[in-house]
Amino acid sequence: MAKGDELLIVDGSERHRAALVKILEEEGYVCSVAATDAEARESVSSKSFPVILVDIDLGGTASGGLDLIRYIREASPASDVIGTLSRRGFEAAVHAFRLGCIDVIVKASDQMNHLKQTIAASCTRYRLGGGSPDLLVEVRTVLNDAFNTMLSLARKVYDEVSVAAMVNFRPRILFIESDQQMVQQLGALVQNKNWEIEAAINGGDGLDKSARRFDLVVVRDELPDLRGTMVISTIQTHEPTVLGMLYNAPGENGAITHYNMGRVGDVHRPFTDPAQLIEQIDQVVATLGFRQREQMVIRAFRNDHEE
């Protein structure tokens, strides 16, 4: 039986929060709750918890819970974070583990005993001071090495699958550009590319078309109705996995900026020639192709090893 260890439960569903509180308070834990990212951050900044449960789908999107997990690992490294899911999701679980979750558990009745055992072990480590950051880093390093080794072996076993993924990969790219001269220049540069391309003439048009789900959105910042930054932010809020690329008018002050899950990535300047934009897209497409290959290898591995 737990002895008053205080847990933080972060979940956007009132029903799920209440159910978890009931189960864990019966075990003797003191439970604090947060319904939003902001509430959770306020709690974490003011108090230390041995264990924090975070709904990976917080706010209706996976990025909400993952962003919070990332924040907790930086702001409260002594706390163990357990990700929770309403349904099984392999890719979301992998992301959560890589961000530092000690476990990812589905919110289902048959998983509650496992949840209790995981929390009890974490609280014991916390009280004994056994959850040192150095030890956790070492454990995560071992797990990452094991995962990478398994993936490397899987690539060899499923070589035909991975090669087929690379050959058949055709990225979906949305270009949002209002300047007709630039449209013509880019059109000439992409005509031989194996890309599935759609074009939009302004920000509103681009947002409407983005509902069709693209791998990459390439946006000019100076649009007649909306700023390109706002367009990318809106799209990545609804579809966090969509990559973004923002550029402004070519010239000495021109730049190409990458966006991933709402965050600014690499910036390339000066941007003086449309061909530079295509070169940057080529690099992103190569990364997307590799990601597609890895996902197909993992999927093939899982299909062969499911119980």
Q: If you had to describe this structure to a student in words, what would you say it looks like?
A:
This protein has helices at about 15-25, 35-45, 60-75, 90-100, 110-130, 135-155, 160-170, 180-190, 205-210, 230-240, 275-305, and strands at about 5-10, 30-35, 50-55, 80-85, 105, 170-175, 195-200, 215-220, 245, 255-260, 265-270. β1, α1 (about 15-25) and β2 (about 30-35) form a beta-alpha-beta unit. The protein has about 300 residues and is of the alpha/beta class. The protein folds into two domains: about 5-135, Response regulator (Rossmann fold), CATH 3.40.50.2300; about 165-305, Response regulator (Rossmann fold, 3-Layer(aba) Sandwich). The strands form two sheets. It has a six-stranded mixed beta sheet with strand order 7-6-8-9-10-11, with helices on both faces. The chain has a five-stranded parallel beta sheet with strand order 2-1-3-4-5, with helices on both faces. About 30% of the residues are buried.
Number of domains: 2
- In the CATH hierarchy, the architecture of the largest domain is 3-Layer(aba) Sandwich
Mean of the pLDDT scores?
A: 84
Fold-level CATH name of the largest domain:
Rossmann fold
What is the CA–CA distance across the termini? 33 Å
Please trace the helix and strand order, writing H or E for each element: EHEHEHEHEHHHEHEHEHEEEH
Q: What's the tally of helices?
A: 11
Low-confidence stretches: none
Question: What share of the residues lie within helices?
Answer: 40-55%
CATH class of the largest domain: Alpha Beta
Oligomerization state of this entry? single chain
Structural class: alpha/beta
Per CATH, the superfamily of the largest domain is Response regulator
Largest sheet: 6 strands, mixed
Query: Largest beta sheet: what is the strand line-up?
Result: 7-6-8-9-10-11
Strand tally: 11
Overall 3D shape: elongated
